[in-house]
C-alpha cells in the first residue's frame, strides 16, 4: 500500500475519495459472490449439511471451505484478507487527506490508524490459528460470511474514520493526556487479546497435532502454553 501510494499508482486517498463507488461495488459483489458460491456448490456436488430450506441454505451457505486449485481457502480469504485491510486502508486515507489539507495528522486519526493496523496485522500473522475457530470448521461460506466481510465490515466499521476525515480536527480535539492513556490502555488490551487468543488456538492445534510456529511480526511473549499439566493440577488442588 505504501509503495503504491508513494509511486502514485494508487494514492491511498482513493479509499475515501471513491468511498461511494467502492461501497456500491462491495455491496453488488457481495450479492453476486454469494449467489455464485451457492449455485456453484450444487453444480459441483460439494454441498454440505443442506437443510432443504433454500433461503436458509443460501444465507448460511452450501459449501464448507471451498478452495481455489486446492490452495486458496476462500472462506479464510474473505474473513481475513478483504475486510480488515480495506478498513485499514480507509484509516490511512484519512491520515493522508488530513496531511495534505492541514500539513499534519491529528492524534485522533493516528489512534485509528494504529488500532486498525494492529487488528489487520493480527489477523494476517495469526491466520493459521483461526482454522480451529467456529467460522472456519463449522460455518459454511454463504451470504452471511461473504456479504458481511465484503461490504458489512469495511463499510460500516469505518464510521469513526469517516467522521474524522470529514471534520476539522479542531472540532474533535482531545486532551493529550487523556488520549495518551487511551493509547496505552488500547495497546495493553491488545496484548491481552492477542496473547489469550494465541494460547487458546495454539493449544487446540497442539491437541490435534497440527501446531506450526510462524515467525510473523510482532510475536508477543507467552503466545503458546506448552505444558498445561502443572497449571491444571494447581487449579484442581485450589478448587
TrEMBL record:
Name the keywords, alphabetized.
Lipid biosynthesis, Lipid metabolism, Membrane, NADP, Oxidoreductase, Steroid biosynthesis, Steroid metabolism, Sterol biosynthesis, Sterol metabolism, Transmembrane, Transmembrane helix
Keyword presence, Zinc-finger: no
Q: Which organism is it from?
A: Endocarpon pusillum (strain Z07020 / HMAS-L-300199)
Instruction: List each coiled-coil range.
Output: none
Q: What is this protein called?
A: Delta(24(24(1)))-sterol reductase
Give the reaction(s) catalysed. Answer: ergosterol + NADP(+) = ergosta-5,7,22,24(28)-tetraen-3beta-ol + NADPH + H(+)
Q: What is the superkingdom listed in this entry's lineage?
A: Eukaryota
Q: Which GO terms describe its biological process?
A: ergosterol biosynthetic process
Q: Name one GO cellular component term.
A: endoplasmic reticulum membrane
Q: What pathway does the UniProt record associate with this protein?
A: Steroid metabolism; ergosterol biosynthesis
Q: Where in the cell is it found?
A: Membrane
In which family does this protein belong, per the annotation? Belongs to the ERG4/ERG24 family.
Q: Which GO terms describe its molecular function?
A: Delta24(24-1) sterol reductase activity
InterPro entries, per the entry = ERG24_DHCR-like, Sterol_reductase_CS
